[in-house]
């Protein structure tokens, strides 16, 4: 999934425009620093209420930033000039729990009954980590963040049930506390870690073999730190085997117009939207 651009787009508008033009088709880690990024799940309206309940019952992996009206591809709450059909680098199309395609545009699949859920992404708080002098390993390696399925069950809602997915960033022991303190300020993009240290306690057997994204080196003196991840709904979609859904491809996020400093209250999104 190599980008066709030689330089990274810098603003949310530039990122979305490059995605729309098909010139940025890879992960969005490090793009548009200072602006919130979001995972995407698109479902038919007859399944939207159960999925909304799933998000509300599992706020760590599924913190809602916006929900579109049926048939409306504009996420007016977080980017009123955007279009979720075209403005992500790459999508996944699901049928009965299986990925059947990974296109860069889903306009041709759009229907009047589709509802888009924009879920906060931990790429957002990486800028704060970097600003505090902490290394974000996958950015240093210029790769996607490693993500892992766990044995931790989410709270079900209707047909939506499954296990938590986590992202991982390694830190030295002295930096773990700082990473926890910094990320806890951003509950709308997963907030503080869900686990530090032994991956086996989460049911993760091998850090070198992530289920999504790319492996990164973890030094002997470092601890793996795990955050709840917005790819969790994709594991849930496999389990639910719903007839049709569209999501972002892991790591290929929607870049919003919401500034990082506007997050942090834990109540950015109104559940009545």
List descriptors.
273 residues; alpha+beta; PSTPO5379-like; PSTPO5379-like fold; 7-stranded antiparallel beta sheet; 4-stranded antiparallel beta sheet; 6 helices; 11 strands; 19% helix; 23% strand; globular
Topology, please?
Blueprint: H1 12-21, E1 35-44, H2 45-57, E2 64-67, E3 91-95, E4 98-101, E5 114-120, H3 126-131, H4 137-140, E6 147-153, E7 163-171, H5 173-183, E8 195-196, E9 223-228, H6 232-240, E10 245-248, E11 254-259
Antiparallel strand pairs: 1-5, 1-10, 1-11, 2-5, 3-4, 3-10, 6-7, 7-9, 8-9
Structural account:
This protein has 273 residues and is α+β, with helices and mostly antiparallel strands. The chain has 2 domains: 133 residues, PSTPO5379-like (3-Layer(aba) Sandwich); 104 residues, PSTPO5379-like fold (2-Layer Sandwich). Helix content is 19%, strand content 23%. The strands form 2 sheets. Strands 1, 2, 3, 4, 5, 10 and 11 form a 7-stranded antiparallel beta sheet that branches. The chain has a 4-stranded antiparallel beta sheet with strand order 6-7-9-8. A hairpin with a 2-residue loop joins strand 3 and strand 4. The longest helix has 13 residues. The two termini are 34 Å apart.
CATH superfamily name of the largest domain? PSTPO5379-like
Helicity level: 10-25%
What's the β-strand tally?
A: 11
CATH topology category name of the largest domain: PSTPO5379-like
Domain unit count: 2
The CATH class of the largest domain, by name, is: Alpha Beta
Please state the average pLDDT score: 93
Could you say what the CATH architecture of the largest domain is? 3-Layer(aba) Sandwich
Number of helices: 6
Stretches where pLDDT is under 50 for at least 5 consecutive residues are none
Distance between the termini: 34 Å
Query: Structural class, from helix and strand content?
Result: alpha+beta
């Amino acid at each position: 999934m190599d980008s066709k651009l030689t330089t990274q787009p810098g603003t949310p508008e530039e990122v979305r425009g490059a995605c729309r033009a098909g010139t940025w088709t890879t992960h969005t880690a490090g793009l548009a620093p200072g602006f919130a990024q979001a995972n995407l799940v698109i479902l038919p309206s007859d399944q939207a209420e159960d999925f909304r309940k799933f998000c509300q019952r599992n706020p760590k992996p599924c913190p809602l930033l916006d929900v579109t009206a049926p048939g409306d591809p504009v996420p007016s709450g977080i980017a009123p000039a955007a279009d979720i059909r075209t403005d992500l680098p790459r999508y996944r199309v699901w049928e009965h729990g299986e990925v059947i395609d990974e296109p860069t545009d889903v306009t041709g699949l759009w229907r009047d009954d589709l509802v888009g859920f924009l879920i906060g992404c931990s790429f957002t708080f990486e800028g704060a980590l970097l600003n505090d002098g902490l290394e974000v390993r996958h950015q240093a390696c210029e790769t996607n963040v490693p993500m892992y399925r766990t044995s931790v069950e989410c709270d079900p809602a209707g047909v939506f049930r499954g296990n938590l997915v986590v992202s991982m960033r390694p830190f030295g022991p002295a930096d773990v506390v700082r990473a926890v303190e910094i990320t806890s300020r951003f509950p709308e993009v997963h907030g503080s870690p869900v686990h530090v240290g032994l991956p086996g306690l989460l049911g993760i057997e091998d850090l070198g073999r992530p289920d999504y994204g790319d492996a990164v080196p973890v030094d002997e003196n470092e601890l793996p730190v795990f955050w709840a991840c917005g790819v969790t709904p994709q594991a849930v979609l496999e389990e639910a085997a719903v007839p049709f859904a569209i999501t972002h491809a892991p790591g290929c996020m929607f870049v919003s117009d919401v500034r990082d400093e506007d997050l942090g209250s834990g109540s950015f999104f109104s559940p009545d939207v």
